Amino acid sequence: MKNILVIGAGRSSTALINYVLEKAKEYGWFVTVADADPQLAQQKVNGHSNGRGTWLDVMKVNDRRELIERNDIVVSLLPAHLHLEVAQDCIKLKKHLITASYVSKEMYRLGDAARDRELIFMGEMGLDPGIDHMSAMQKIDEIKEKGGKLHAFRSYTGGLIAPESDTNPWHYKFTWNPRNVVLAGQGTAQYLEENKYKYIPYNRLFAQYRLVDIPTMGEYEVYANRDSLLYREVYGLNDIPNILRGTIRHRGFCDAWNAFIKLGLTDGSYPILESENLTYHSFMEAYLKPGSGSVRDRTAVFLGEDLDSDVMHKLDWLGLFSKKKINIENATPALILEHLLLDKWKLEEDDKDMIIMQHEFEYDLDGERRLLTSTLVLKGNDSTDTAMARLVGIPLGIFVKLVMQGKITATGVNIPVMKEVYDPVIEELKEYGVVFEERETVLA
Amino acid sequence: MKNILVIGAGRSSTALINYVLEKAKEYGWFVTVADADPQLAQQKVNGHSNGRGTWLDVMKVNDRRELIERNDIVVSLLPAHLHLEVAQDCIKLKKHLITASYVSKEMYRLGDAARDRELIFMGEMGLDPGIDHMSAMQKIDEIKEKGGKLHAFRSYTGGLIAPESDTNPWHYKFTWNPRNVVLAGQGTAQYLEENKYKYIPYNRLFAQYRLVDIPTMGEYEVYANRDSLLYREVYGLNDIPNILRGTIRHRGFCDAWNAFIKLGLTDGSYPILESENLTYHSFMEAYLKPGSGSVRDRTAVFLGEDLDSDVMHKLDWLGLFSKKKINIENATPALILEHLLLDKWKLEEDDKDMIIMQHEFEYDLDGERRLLTSTLVLKGNDSTDTAMARLVGIPLGIFVKLVMQGKITATGVNIPVMKEVYDPVIEELKEYGVVFEERETVLA
Fold this sequence. Notes:
CATH class of the largest domain in chain A: Alpha Beta
Largest sheet of chain A: 7 strands, parallel
Oligomer: homodimer
Helix content of chain A: 25-40%
CATH superfamily of the largest domain in chain A: Dihydrodipicolinate Reductase, domain 2
CATH architecture of the largest domain in chain A: 2-Layer Sandwich
CATH topology of the largest domain in chain A: Dihydrodipicolinate Reductase, domain 2
Structural class of chain A: alpha/beta
Number of domains of chain A: 3
């Protein structure tokens, strides 16, 4: 095995491509980077003698299969809905497949076919999902091994802006998919608390945040993810009484975001009529009851905010009361908001992003209840070499190496919850600054 | 033309079948009532010499076509998603088609084919939609004809319980599809106010109700429908500055229903885990933050209600704090609520329902702004002969007669907004007690 195919040369590919090219000489690999934009692919390979960039339209079945055929392992960085076709090719042509995306039900159905052919299809091999699985499973297995019984597992992740680049009143900038940020939390969050299922509907998700202390960083807000129960079984936590996954935000973020939800501005399901003619001011007015007073005053009254509250200042800073034209046709409110935020929350060239991930494990051992907290804080270098991009790409690269070295015995469709994966990946990630700091206290 | 086919013999068919059988002798019609339950169909025909009840599985294409072939006009009372297949048969076999359901986009696409064959496909020919279109269009055309310029059109309808049968603190019982009541308003309501589009998201739709005075009845609450702008064009109201459609409820209903929305109980999109083991008490608790105090106390605090408020009494009366088991597997919160309400809001045998429909037309004429209010209040006889069922069925019947008499010149896919339809239907409906009372005042 010596040929690696990376499909997709977009922003999230850099750290992965750099990693495999760096190792290529040593291990005798050849790396093909394929993209609809061949120049972008070539630029990422950057003349490296063990690699080449090439053109691929993934919808062209024959071209795609021909390229896959000539490689031993495929890393797909395509949009999630395109993985399945690549996966079916990989079954047919007997190639391993690795992605950083959530594994769909359709993908899991390929499990038997992949196992029969002794292939590994590894999904959720990035940061979140990815490093969260691996770092949590390592601790869960350690606790179980020493005889501990887990009482609670809570896991929080945030893609944030580093304090030194925090230059706006929201204390937030986009470091990943803006659309996902705007639509985050829609539906109902489910989690488990003292053996009872708990539900938080979207209309109060951002009002019901909890405060979490991050060692060396201070207090952050966390709102619950929709999917806290999703990994209960695969983590081997079927009997645990408490399980919660959440997203980390800076203090003050959730209350302000909740203003958008109350107003109705995060809805992506219907277009605003004649949106191209609206100003932000008239857009806001469309969601207010008629009344006297300025749109800003009526917004404050509606939200129950003082005129000079933090929330109102955050709305001011976005220009939501300005008479600037929106200039997007047929836009949903969510899209209008996304476009505004894309401009306001843009990462400047020298800005550093920051990933925070924290796991909390409560467990009983030797008659004591203990709390183990495991925390990762990692900053990027600038707006290109972000911590986010690095932590998505490097685990993919390390896993490619493990497969190429024949160190992976697992077959079928998987996510990285097994020791043979998490141990070497977590270990090597330390070289890249991915170090979880641990604290343990006795609760009772 | 002499043969009429009615497909579907369920609850909503009685008034229609009685109407066409009553007229059958006089006009020489023969009425075939077809249902998956042939006994139900025969029971509805009740031995009338001009009718018969017969078995039909609508999914059996050949049986369905054979039956349609032998008739001149088809009234489909099937669930809305099944109309389209019947409609395609009617195109093929050259038969007219009448339904009380909303006309889908797919149905509108059959317009040319129906017109080419000189067929009338009439949808929305019941109460709401149906009588609302006809009674509003008659007034709109009258106002335009005398030179009036419409400034506002507001239209409200409610399927309610008559005061003499109003025996519960919600002042509401189910007189039509319970599921639609539970899911009502999800999405975002859109309407037009002083030439500006206005939006009310679901999370505050029931908080932002308006009070409307119904002559002889008093004040009611109205929440906005999603679709206020839907008929602007077909009503010929493209330039009107104000348009709003809404649903009428008894005073106190909206605040109490809003408690369900705040809690998250009207969501039909995900199942409650292990719902079969829950009690109503634990169901409520699953939506509350942990804390001290009883579930009822914490619910009151969460809702911002006094412990003995009207809203809390309404929740008490439903038994939401009782330890009774829910006993439904894999149920969504909306389904749990629907099942509870089905029991609590059941129409008793002698209960009378009540339809209220009110249109408000503001228009300028001779330098004056006038307000014309047109109001229908109609009560049913009992839980079988409801006003609701009558007002859905009789317009269908009258329209069948008009088509059979060759009095309809319109062809293609339509809703009843044309004079040749609304004039005779509204006129004949008076014989059935459907009388709109009008009041006109000068506003300025």
